[in-house]
Amino acid sequence: KIRSQYDPKKGRRVRSSIEAIEDRMLEHGECEQVVAYLRQRALHFEAQYQAGLEKQEVMEGAWMDYLWIAMLTYGGMRIREIYQMEYRGQRLYYDESDNCYWCKLFPAEHKTSGDRAYPLFPGPLQAQLTADFTHFWQNVRPNWPHQFVFYQRGTSQNRFINRGKPIIERPSHIIRRIMFNASRELFGEDKAKAMTPHDFRRSSATWFAHYGHIEDVSIFAQLHGHSVNMLLDL
Questions:
Q1: CA distances (Å), 100 to each of 54, 62, 76, 92, 160, in order?
Q2: The pLDDT of residue 47 is above 90
Q3: What mean pLDDT is predicted for residues 167-185?
Q4: Average pLDDT in the chain
Q5: Which residues make Cβ contacts (< 8 Å) with residue 76, sequence separation at least 6?
Q6: Where are the alpha helices (DSSP H) in the chain?
Q7: More confident position, 64 or 92
Q8: How many CB atoms lie under 10 A from the CB of residue 114?
Q9: How much is the pTM?
Q10: Count of CB atoms within 10 A of residue 1's CB?
Q11: How far is CA 159 from the centre of its chain?
Q12: Closest-CA residue to 83 (of 183, 8, 186)
């Protein structure tokens, strides 16, 4: 069986076998372990930074690694919706009545018709992930002259000039690197997997089809940007 997937390097959709896709994917439970590992890594580097033992940009990068993979694991959003996320107005806002963040996209910003609105981090870890997101925004992220949540890192000398600027290219290679390094650390060299952002959409849809509650199907469909039928067919 063959499925197509967008390749940012080639600028078009390419075809891959189901076997090739499955070979580079982790189970959803393993992705959850990666999220927990990345959270501890972010907290460790923050403690090291506060003790004067680590650079600020290393700590920031660890927090972005954690939040990116958490959003992909528990939300299944498109990677473009993550790196173009802005904290302003009705685009991304905190709803005190729900104790969570909501993200709203307009028709020109996604593939389906009409507005899309969905909560960040749906599921049992919503409270923890919401608190961590708030901590990143208020205490870790520098006060850049823009409202994008995530930004270019630029840790080497020749790239540092771009640090803090909005991300303009899909960071798919960064996601693959984060997942490969984290899964190698957790599961060993032979089980290291370089998952793509789109792999997470398949993983989260499969998880929901097996373990989700039918009353939540519309929320997960909004997160994926698909109709309910398309979500269950991923």
A1: 31, 22, 17, 11, 33
A2: yes
A3: 94
A4: 79
A5: 200, 201, 203, 204, 205, 220, 223, 224
A6: 18-23, 28-50, 56-74, 79-83, 126-135, 172-187, 197-211, 217-224, 228-233
A7: 64
A8: 9
A9: 0.79
A10: 7
A11: 23
A12: 8
Query: Is beta strand 100-105 parallel, antiparallel or unpaired with respect to 92-95?
Result: antiparallel
- What number of other Cβ atoms are within 10 A of residue 3's Cβ? 14
* List of long-range contacts for 225-233, beta carbons under 8 Å, 24+ apart: 225/77, 225/78, 225/81, 225/110, 225/111, 225/112, 225/116, 226/112, 227/112, 231/205, 232/205
d(CA 112, CA 231): 13
User: Count of CB atoms within 10 A of residue 39's CB?
Assistant: 21
Residue reference for tokens 């032979």: 190
Q: What confidence tens digit (pLDDT) does each residue in 61-83 have?
A: 999 999 999 999 887 788 888 99
**The one-letter amino acid at 123:** G
Give me the amino acid identity at 15: R
Amino acid at 64: M
State the distance between the two ends of the chain, measured CA to CA, in whole angstroms. 14
**Number of Cβ within a 10 Å radius of residue 208:** 25
User: What tokens were used for 203?
Assistant: 């993983």
Alpha carbon separation from 4 to 26, 141, 166 (Å, rounded): 19, 36, 29
CB 199 within 8 A of CB 21: yes
